[in-house]
Amino acid sequence: MLGVANGGITLAHRLAALLPGSPQGVIDISFHRDDIGRNPIPKEFAPTEIPVDVTGAAVVLVDDVLFSGRTAKAALDELFDHGRPARVELAVLVDRGGRRLPLAADYTGLTLAANDAEKVLVHLDATDPARDTVRVVPV
Amino acid sequence: MPWTRRHLIAIEELSRAEIEQIHATTTAFKKILQRSVKKVPALRGKTVVNLFLEPSTRTRMSFEMAAKRLSADVISFDAAHSSTTKGETLRDTAQNIQALNADMIVLRHSAAGSALYLSRLLNIPVVNAGDGAHEHPTQALLDTFTMKEKFGSLTGRKVVILGDILFSRVARSNIWALTKLEADVTLVGPSTLVPHWFTHLGVKVSHDLKSALADAEVVMLLRIQHERQTSSHFPSLGEYTSMFGLNKTRASWLNPKAIIMHPGPINRGVEIDSELADSSRSVILEQVQNGIAVRMAALYLCAGGQPEHVLAPG
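ok -> structure tokens follow
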């Protein structure tokens, strides 16, 4: 169970807690982005941390929001630099539509039809799940 | 705040937070260098030109490898084979390189200020790989990174820089980096090469090697920069070695946990004895390894740097 940094990390923790025994880690896509020089490099990032050999493993990539599919594609690229998994699936909390790449989630919490002028913000509260929110706001 | 710089010219102009962001990025790249696939596509399709108009092996190879690990195409020029030997000016050489559609320039030049000059002249990012006796920012970044790996925070750590401070860009960059990271820096060497006015930079100056070494947690040795000295600053190399060279006796004054650093090239038997350079307390080869990851971070951040006016909302 690999959370895509930074948005997918908390969700991966939550899912892993429901599936005891599955090793969990983090996938950082910073160095696989295709927009370097066009979009800023953020100050904070969580480096890739995979606790087991991914070769032959069944991997679930976890992210909060699925939009264009570029992040999921970059996460696949990063994952394959670490080995050759037997199978990869994608789990997202929100599929907001608007895909630009031929990718789909295998597990989806919520499907929305947000338009390009809207942004979907997910907040998963680290201490109190009652304060979790999904908000659709104008860009 | 995201990274905003397109050029890396001098440690003097960096904030502590920026130094720490470069170090954090370096940690991520160091992990990549330990994978089986030691390469990421961050600079795919970009061309990095290494313009080395002063001799260098380590730094040039290190920048070359860093750029390749980021999937950039790299072209390296060196002084002996370039048209600068036919009288072309730095300005013309650099403008020609930009006209060839290069995306970044890494510059090593004997004149202080040359990297700043190019960064103002060209539209592409410029990374300073050493400009005269001014600065060598990536060296100081890798030195402080190596120290942080050994000690964690550098606050209050006692660092002795020993040797030719006056002509050393490595010393200047390290003084800026170490004082910004709140280390306790003492410069040691002959008074002709370690003038008292360096204390204005927030460091101590000492000519008493024994007491400085007894306190040190890090000893950074510097080479005598013959090529920059226009007059004689000490009677002879032999005299320098007998007064300030790090030998077994002097190393015995050190704290057993102290580490020995050297940016290279080493003059064995001059500033350091061979057996100390090769001893377990020497981290000289770790410095070289960390150099690649630091230079990957410098190239990556400058390639992706977005000036503040671009980042501003609206």
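The first helix of chain B runs from residue 16 to 33.
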